[in-house]
Amino acid sequence: MVPDLRPKLAFVLFLSVCAFAFDWQILLPLIALVLLFPFALPSYHPASDRARHLFFRFILFSIAISGAIIVLNGWILQTGERVEVLPGISLFSDGLLFGVRTAARLLLLSFSVLLFFSSTPIPTCINALQQSGLPRTVVLMLLLTLHFLDSLPERINRIFMAQEARGAPVRAGFISRTKAFFSILSPLLLSSIAESVDRGVALELRGFLLEMAPSAKPELPAQPFSPLTILLLAASFFILVISIARWLLP
């Protein structure tokens, strides 16, 4: 039986609406709540050890990027009072506040999407899309895209190793890594396109498209929306309507 992913998707929608509707004082507790979900709820546990490792690496990377956004805004937007963040280094309060708002929205959006994909294996996601009645070509395209994104770090590492074997200093420093990044784009894109075509042909030969055809299997009865899904969708709609009304009305 394919698990119902609609509560997770409704939760991502709810957090996305909250990211644009509320100020940073409310978004920070929501971010902390999202980070606690993989430990508190079994349905949100990372699907594998690799997903868990990538989840925590992405959290650290996002926090570093958010700190850079806050500092840059505090330095560029020179309005408001000066705030001394370090001895001899002062930033502007309005810029810092704007950076905190922007960083909080980006963190909540990225963490909510990351939580969904890290806790949902690709086959489960594809089966759920297949059962939802999406066209088989769309499901196949999503399957190939998700597989490409999942294997992208390994592909880049293989290209780096191949260039190192040829004597290219791709890991010598920041400048070398920057030059190597542009040099790997061509083989990365060409190999990805070739493998996507081969994988699509292999799936077709194995009957993947036939299994997804409407006549291949009887239609399953539509599952009713769970109370949690209805509650999250209703809350998202209510918050969205209130936000639009506050924006339109003086």
How would you explain this protein's 3D organization?
The longest helix is centred in the last third of the chain and has 32 residues, at 174-205. The protein is built from nine helices and two strands, in the order H-H-H-E-E-H-H-H-H-H-H. With 250 residues, the chain is mainly α. The radius of gyration is 23 Å and the shape is flat. It has a two-stranded antiparallel sheet with strand order 1-2.
Descriptors:
250 residues; mainly alpha
Strand content: under 5%
User: Would you count the extended β strands for me?
Assistant: 2
Number of domains: 2
Helix vs. strand class: mainly alpha
Terminus-to-terminus distance: 51 Å
Let me know the largest β-sheet: 2 strands, antiparallel
Helix fraction? Answer: over 70%
Overall pLDDT level: 77
Query: Rg, please?
Result: 23 Å
**How would the global form be characterised?**
flat
Q: Major sheet: order of its strands?
A: 1-2
User: What string, H for helix and E for strand, traces the elements in order?
Assistant: HHHEEHHHHHH
Number of helices in the DSSP assignment? 9
Low-confidence stretches: 211-220
